[in-house]
Each structure stands twice: as C-alpha cells, then as structure tokens.
Specification:
Keywords: Phosphoprotein, Transferase, Ubl conjugation pathway
Order of helices and strands: HHEHEHEEHHHHHEEHHHHEHHEEEH
Radius of gyration: 25 Å
Shape: globular
Structural class: alpha/beta
Pathway: Protein modification; protein ubiquitination
Number of strands: 10
Distance between the termini: 44 Å
InterPro entries: E3A/B/C-like, HECT_dom, Hect_E3_ubiquitin_ligase
Function: E3 ubiquitin-protein ligase which accepts ubiquitin from an E2 ubiquitin-conjugating enzyme in the form of a thioester and then directly transfers the ubiquitin to targeted substrates.
Strand content: 5-15%
GO biological process, one term: protein polyubiquitination
Number of helices: 16
C-alpha cells in the first residue's frame, strides 16, 4: 500500500515505485491494493455522510453508512435498477441487501445471492440484452437499438460493485470485453471522448463468433477472384426484431465491391463494426456504470485478463485444495462422517461440485487467492440425521449432521445443494 500511495502521490516523477511496472506485481497483490483502496473510499464516503448528518443537526443512524438495497424477488431487475438509480451517491458505500418479506440479515450471503439471481435474469436470452454464442460459450452485447440503455449501465454497476465488494460473479464475457472496459482505464473528463473503443482483430472475433471468424479467414486466404466469386460489397446485414437491416462499413459501401486488393480492409471494418460500432451505446453505458463504482487509479495496474479474474474468479475447481484448507468445528478431519463427505465430494461430477460451492459460499467460482481464500468450514450440526445439511453463505460454512452411512450422506447432500435458492429462518 505504501508503494501504491507513493505512486499516486508522485505520479510520473523520477521517484521509483513498483507500481510503475505493474507486470512485476502479482494479481493477488493487485487485488489487495484494490480492496484497500475500495475500503478507504468506503470509509471516506461513510464519514462524509456522518459529518453531513451531524452538521444539519440530524440524528445519525447506521443505515446511512451502507448502500442499502431493498428488492422484491418477483421484481428483481426493476427494483434493483430503481434502487441503484435513486442511491447513485451511495454506490461507494458497503453494500447491504434485503429481500422484501424475508427475515434474513445480510452478513454477506444475501448480497451474494442478489448478484447471482440478478445476473441470471439479465443474461437470460429472453431478456434480449445479451446474445449467448454456443460455439464460444460466452455472452456478447445485443446490437438491437433501444430508447434507454440504463439496464446496460446497471450491468456495469453490478460488475463494479462486485469488484468493489470483493464478490466473484458467474459472467461469461469474452476477453475482448475487458480490453474495451480498460479503454481508457480512467474515465476521461471530456464526455465527448469515445469510451470502450479498442483495436480489435480476427482473434478477438474468434473468441466470440468462431464460425464467422473462420469464414473471414477463408476470405483472406482465398486464391481465386474474390469479387466475382463472393460478390460482396462493403455492406453488412443484421436481423433486428425480425427485420433485416443493412449497414455500410464505409461511405457508399453498398456500391464498393470486395476485391482481392481491398479484402483486408473489408475484414477489419467488419470486425470493428461488430465489436465496436454496432454496440457503442450499449457498451458505453456499461463502461460508465462500471467506472461509476470502480473509479480508481488501481485499475491502471491491471491488464484485461486480470480484470476478468477479479470479476469472475476462476472456474477451475480444485477440490483437493479445498479439502486441504478446510477448517472443522465439532469434527476432526479423521472422523468417519468427514471421510465419507470427502469421498462423496471428490467423486462428484463438476456440476455437483459447483453446486456444493454455490450452496456453501453463494458463488460457484474460485477467488483470486484460490480455494484457501474461501476459509471454508465444516461444522457439526447436532440434529437428527434425517435433516439435510445447512449452509451459512455469509461465513462459507457447511453445517453437517453426523450421518452414519456414506449412502445417506450422499443422498442428503445432493438434495440440499440442488434446492438452495431463497433465505429463511427456522
């Protein structure tokens, strides 16, 4: 942190700081810098709210120190959008979520669940904001024109809040998205300067639309007469709500044939159109949403791949590493129930291992520091063995009754982890 503050204070002066050479700093160290920077901003904003309240001779209360979200499960997206719009000044406070009509207190678990459910709804194909590409297994921004791009800003805010509050999200964006998100890494003061525009090439397109990228590669490698055999112009077509619309890649593009001489220009303009120009309004709203929360010089230390890891964590699960780092309360790691538990879990297919991780931590992704950073704990639940396991996602804790057989443990565990949405108190 001293290095970071030195770098912030002296900028591009001749005073040395490791932050001038971010490639030598590990992603774990960068995460610590961003977390501490976020915490300092949170404290500063909360302190200012307190001072403002006292100076107006109003009685302070604890709620003013948090970004309090009250949402209904049945109206999750609209309620979240309304709350974040109304409380824009509070985005840099610690996040706290309440589901209307539920008794749960948010010690971290409700926040994780809010993120998970909201992301799941927004990225659903029926919602129309993002298109899922099966070949690349990732989402990309829908190019459909609309009157209001505020929901794209909401997704950006969500990603920013996740980084700011150290929560990993199950979002499948291609690497190109994070490159655009850092273009530029600090929001320009001049609003007329374009944001989210970066240089793109056929490799970037291949990560989203591999079939189209392959077709364009074939065009570039074609040895025959491109103009006569392909009969294409500098015009592309897109379907929007059942209507085919045409767009010129350059002025008068519908009258300019693609030839052997200009095909490289055509391919580059086409890729730029798909990844930059056709989604500019959607992505700029997303960019401003993210940076409205994560406005920090610490972002300048990150490369796009590192932003992706901070946002999404790693999808690679190492359950042996989780076993090695697990803490126990009421059990010893040699107890029969615990031995049964790990035999069952290590034998699970990947989808059930992810469900277990989601059940106990609120996310099925692994944080930057690996499984050890989860501080996973298994506690003995002195209840009937007819009961299912219980989880406290706030503390990454699994409460496990002392099941007498491996078969019984496996059956109860699968039922528990497969039916884990909602929050209730007995």
């Amino acid at each position: 942190m001293e290095e970071y503050h030195t770098w912030q204070s002296f900028g591009n002066s001749h005073r040395f700081s490791f932050c001038q050479y971010p490639f030598v700093i590990s992603i774990a160290a960068k995460k610590i810098i961003i977390q501490r920077d976020s915490e300092q901003q949170m404290i500063s904003i909360a302190r200012q709210s307190l001072v403002d309240k006292v100076s107006r001779r109003q009685r302070p209360d604890m709620n003013m120190l948090f970004l309090n979200m009250k949402v209904r499960r049945t109206h999750l997206v609209s309620d979240s959008l309304d709350e974040l719009t109304r409380k824009r000044a509070d985005l840099k406070k610690k996040l706290k979520v309440t589901f209307v009509g539920e008794a749960g207190l948010d010690m971290g678990g409700l926040t994780k669940e809010w993120f998970l459910l909201l992301i799941r709804q927004i990225f659903h194909p029926d919602y129309g904001m993002f298109t899922y590409h099966k070949d690349s297994q990732c989402h990309w921004f829908s190019s459909f024109k609309c009157d209001n791009y505020s929901e794209f800003r909401l997704v950006g805010i969500l990603m920013g809040l996740a980084v700011y509050n150290s929560i990993t999200l199950d979002i499948r964006f291609p690497p190109c998205c994070y490159k655009k998100l850092l273009s530029p890494p600090i929001v320009p003061s001049d609003q007329s300067i374009p944001v989210g525009i970066c240089s793109v090439n056929i490799d970037d397109l291949c990560q989203i639309m591999p079939e189209l990228a392959h077709g364009l590669s074939e065009l570039l490698a074609y040895e025959g007469n491109v103009e006569e055999d392909f009969y294409s112009t500098f015009q592309v077509f897109q379907e929007e709500f059942g209507i085919i619309k045409s767009y010129n890649l350059k002025p008068g593009g519908d009258k300019i044939p693609v030839t052997n001489q200009n095909r490289k220009e055509y391919v580059q303009l086409y890729i730029d159109f798909l990844l930059n120009k056709s989604i500019y309004k959607q992505f700029s709203a997303f960019y401003y949403g993210f940076h409205s929360v994560c406005a920090s010089n610490a972002l300048m230390l990150l490369c796009p791949e590192e932003v992706e890891i901070l946002v999404c964590g790693s999808p690679e699960l190492d359950m042996h590493a989780l076993q090695r780092s697990t803490q126990y309360d009421g059990y010893a790691k040699t107890d029969l129930t615990i031995r049964y538990f790990w035999e069952v879990v290590l034998g699970f297919p990947l989808d059930l291992q992810k469900k277990l991780l989601h059940f106990t931590t609120g996310s099925d992704r692994v944080p930057v520091g690996g499984m050890a950073d989860l501080n996973f704990k298994i506690s003995k639940n002195e209840t009937s063995t007819n009961w299912l396991p219980v989880a406290h996602t706030c503390f990454n804790q699994l409460c496990l009754p002392p099941y007498k057989s491996k078969k019984d443990l496996k059956q109860k565990l699968i039922i528990g982890i497969s039916n884990s949405e909602g929050f209730g108190l007995e």
